Amino acid sequence: MNTVSIVGSLSRRAGGLFESVRRLHQELLRQSARDENFRHARFSTMRRERTETKQKAPISIRVLGLQDPFTEQDLHAWEPVPVHAFKTHGPAAFGYSPALCRELFAVEPELVHLHGLWQFNSVAALLWRRQTGRPLIVSPHGMLDRWALKNSSFRKLLTWIAYERGHLRSATCIRALCQAEATSIRALGLRNPVCIIPNGVDLPTETLRERTDDIQEIDKHRGLRRANSSVPDLLLQKRKALLYLGRIHPKKGLVNLLRAWGKMPQLHEWVLVIAGWDQGGHEVQLKQLASELGIRWTESDGLFDPAISLLFAGPQFGADKHRWFQRCDAVILPSFSEGLPMVVLEAWAHRKLVLMTPQCNLPEGYAAGAAFSISPETEAISIGLERLFQSNRETVERMGLRGYGLVSARFAWPQIAAELKSVYCWMSGAGPKPECVLIA
């Protein structure tokens, strides 16, 4: 099966979507290579055997995306998936790329998978769908959530009327990351089949650690590097770390997190680490707010002061991100809106307790006893922080282990990719309807 996936960004600029889409396609390619021996399988006269042979046939994968300032730096991370980046014209937010559209038609895919909404990519997919009549699957990645729709609402309303509604209605199937996203899709009047397939996660292993060249010797007691005396190392030598990792954006609830943090009496024992990439100048606003609240803060390359309880660690990717997950004692995501956040899955994969809002759409974490529930309001975050501070080490470690068990059983990439492949086969008439597909 010849497939093409379209993404708005091929780089870290896409945030968690970069990680989730990239790993999904790498796993699809790996499984396709494993099934290569079925390419020349003889067709049985029995219908069931013919169907099984088609389902095991390899998938050809190609990813088309738009260029941005980080594309060249991050393209290697997609290997061995074939990736093609295209220049855009006009406003970057729209991503107008006629070259991408031409390539989409030129490669003549049997199936197209679009990731994300509100850009020219949706127009290209709609034109392709109308002209070819071939299967189209769309993954909104949380962009149809009520909070997300209220953000830049006027622009999105115009986009919805102009092409996005028609694009979504034309889709053969829409992929939701969770039941809450499926509900949001139905609330917009979309009656398409919806498949619920979550994001996946890689489980850290000793092999992975050995391949990570720039991860240095880890101190067995506190998970600290002793190779230098950087500000993060000095701050965390005798203290615990609560980690936020992701985009620094208003929807993440960081303003209320800082308001709650400033009220905590145990800050001499803890450091709040905000690690991520700034969007729209929100990090500057947070630093100003921290100063107004009397919270002592610094940056990774700033001055050390033992009274500091807030560290802005900057963007973290690859080995650096892995290292921060090892260093921290717990992870927090006080978000107003999410699709299905990769950072929570990654935290559990690293055996870390998580504080998260119901808007993170991972109720399984509460049921498994792997997370404390908070809401995005200041007082609720304060209660969650107090609960964390009062928990003993055994409780925190036990909840982290429960999270690891949860992602191992339900969110590992091989399982997620296999489920998506079954949807591809069903859409193409090469297999039965999977259980994850809901028909309105």
Short description:
The protein has 18 helices and 15 strands.
**How many beta-strand elements?**
15
Which class best fits the helix and strand makeup? alpha/beta
- Report the CATH architecture of the largest domain: 3-Layer(aba) Sandwich
Average predicted confidence as pLDDT: 89
CATH superfamily of the largest domain: Glycogen Phosphorylase B
Q: Radius of gyration over alpha carbons?
A: 23 Å
Would you identify the regions where 5 or more consecutive residues have pLDDT less than 50? 40-47, 206-229
* Number of helical segments with 4 or more residues: 18
Topology-level CATH name of the largest domain: Rossmann fold
Query: What distance lies between the first and last C-alpha atoms, to the nearest angstrom?
Result: 27 Å
Strand order of the largest sheet: 3-2-1-4-5-6-7-15
Quote the beta fraction: 5-15%
Q: Quick one: overall form?
A: globular
Helix content: 40-55%
CATH class of the largest domain: Alpha Beta
Number of domains: 2
Biggest β-sheet strands, sense, barrel: 8 strands, mixed
What does this structure look like?
This protein is an alpha/beta fold and 440 residues long. It has two domains: 2-200 and 412-438, 3-Layer(aba) Sandwich (Rossmann fold), CATH 3.40.50.2000; 206-410, Glycogen Phosphorylase B (Rossmann fold). The protein is built from 18 helices and 15 strands. The strands form two sheets. The protein has an eight-stranded mixed β-sheet with strand order 3-2-1-4-5-6-7-15, with helices on both faces. Strands 10-11-9-8-12-13-14 form a seven-stranded parallel β-sheet, sandwiched between helices. Helix 8 (179-187) links the parallel strand 6 (173-176) and strand 7. Helix 1 crosses helix 18 (413-427), helix 5 runs parallel beside helix 7 and helix 11 (254-261) crosses helix 16.
